[in-house]
Amino acid sequence: MASHAEAKTNAILETPARTVDAEDAETKLIQKAEHHMEHTYMGSHVCMLICQLVMGEPGYEQVARKHLKHNNFKRMVAALSRYYEFLNLTTNADAESTAHKRQTKEAIDYLGQLDGCESSGVVRTGTTANPADATTAAATFSE
User: Fold this and answer.
1) Which of these, 38, 104, 106, 127, could form a disulfide with 116 (CB 3.0-4.6 Å)?
2) Could you read off the pLDDT of 78-87 as tens digits, one per residue?
3) CA distance 56 to 101
4) Domain coordinates of the chain in residue numbers?
5) Region 116-140: what's the mean pLDDT?
6) How far apart are CA 124 and CA 57, in angstroms?
7) Are 129 and 111 in contact (CB under 8 A)?
8) Nearest 5°: phi and psi at 60?
9) Is 132 buried (19+), middle (13-18) or exposed (0-12) by CB count in 10 A?
10) CA torsion angle for 75, 41, 46, 107 (degrees, to 10)?
């Protein structure tokens, strides 16, 4: 959903200027950005919940994979990475915000390790995800 909203926003930006005045165009862009951010926020929290479900549980990990596109967590890592970048730009340094950013980063790292992703969502070459790696990643994550 977030990528669909982002594509619509990009289409508005790329269309040639019409007879619409600048304020109307600004209002439309802000509304599209709000809609996109809402989807990103909701999707990121669903990713966090799924991460908590599969963490250290290879059986649940396999069930979750069956419901994901391409049976991997790469898109979840990418969504969480975008959300993490947003958090870094918009949150302050209070304890609650810092804890939320830390938990988000830990989820990115854990899910990334399962599928051989970097934090940015880029895939490392020559890695595969198997249940033994998940156990190792869970042990590393909980340390």
Assistant:
1) 127
2) 999 999 998 8
3) 21
4) 21-115
5) 44
6) 23
7) no
8) -65, -35
9) exposed
10) 70
